[in-house]
Amino acid sequence: MYLCRMSYHNTIEFARSMDVEDPLREYRSKFHMPQFNGEDVLYFTGNSLGLQPKSTKAAIEQELDDWARLGVEGHFHAKNPWMPYHEFLTEKTAKLVGAKPIEVVCMNQLTVNVHLLMVSFYRPRGLRYKIICEQKAFPSDQYALESQVKFHGYDPEEAIVEVGPRAGEHTIRHEDILAAIEKHKDELALVFIGGVNYYTGQVFDLAEITAAAHKAGAYAGFDLAHAAGNVILQLHDWNVDFACWCSYKYLNSGPGSVSGAFVHERHAHSELIRFAGWWGHDKVTRFKMEKGFRPVPGAEGWQLSNAPVFSMAAHNAALEIFDEVGMEKLRAKTMKLSGYLEFIIDDVSSRKGNCLEIITPREWKQRGCQLSVVAHGYGRDLFNALMQNGVIPDWREPNVIRLAPVPLYNSFEDIWRFGQKLEEAM
């Protein structure tokens, strides 16, 4: 599906012509755009917090109205009954991540789900106690892995194997991940990697990493916070053991909104140890309130508590947009948008002493929306200048500006205007 690189031009006419031809151009109007001096900001931070769909307010108000009208009976008689509320999200979530409905559930928040799933899938025994992850993983993942390792009585310095870039490089070579799995295969319990690295925007080959982990006798799990809604996922076909993701970045479901989780179908009826809660208990006998946990088959069996209805209402409103558009169309536009941003940055850099270095891979298969840029000699002052001129990018220490043109609401004209403001700020 990957496209050949286009011939771009740094002109307003070209950008507007691309927007006219864009089959997804109408979706921008379905989102609230923050304002700066009476105009839309140039918002390139959907990789941290996606914009609010205009349908979100009505979705939450529906649940508020039913709560006011029905009280506890809303669990059964609301327009969208709260008792099975998480089930309204299942089909759309499965489609989004390339899974079967039995393999997905929306629950909790991301790091909570990381811990809950590691209870089941990080079971160190004897020599098998090591975890392989990528260097400079998102801090929550680092902390989760460290604490899980310590919980089992191991030293993180010995138990956690980080695979990083080679000297002088910014991204991790795929062959180095596979080599690390092979090297530690006799001691390996788990491979746990972010599907898209938050810092560089690098996309990892999850199918091959999973296959290598399984060949080594280990489980494979992934944090898809920067992948869900950004790149095409086929978690079932790739035989991934487990994964989880947040919904507030590319999925536009609001700050701190409910997380998603995946557990492969082959574990649906397993007796994997887990931390149990009553919402994961067999639905038929749940309200008998008896001892003896019997999990719902599939991912639902990892639930602890009943549905956070308000955040799920926001999430459902956002998922409806993804379900309508489809990831194939979004991915096609992403490649054109990120390609244009790459071109604009290179064009500006060529006139400024080639001081802008894109550290995100230039190969389509290794990136999604995000481009990470080091502005040599400028640092945070450049980021601040952009913010003061109506651009909202993202800064990550020590020296990276992250830019994520999101296909649902960013335009080619946004990118052209960004180039003008970037050159002015420099």
Report on the structure:
The chain is built from 13 helices and 15 strands. By secondary structure, it is of the alpha/beta class. It folds into two domains: 12-30 and 326-425, Alpha-Beta Complex (Aspartate Aminotransferase, domain 1), CATH 3.90.1150; 60-324, 3-Layer(aba) Sandwich (Aspartate Aminotransferase, domain 2), CATH 3.40.640. Strand 7, helix 9 (206-215) and strand 8 form a beta-alpha-beta unit. Helix 5 runs parallel beside helix 6 (139-151), helix 8 packs parallel to helix 9 and helix 11 runs parallel beside helix 13 (412-425). The radius of gyration is 22 Å and the shape is globular. The model has no long low-confidence stretch (mean pLDDT 96).
Summarize the structure.
Helix content is 35%, strand content 13%. By secondary structure, the protein is of the alpha/beta class. Helix 5 (110-121) packs parallel to helix 6.
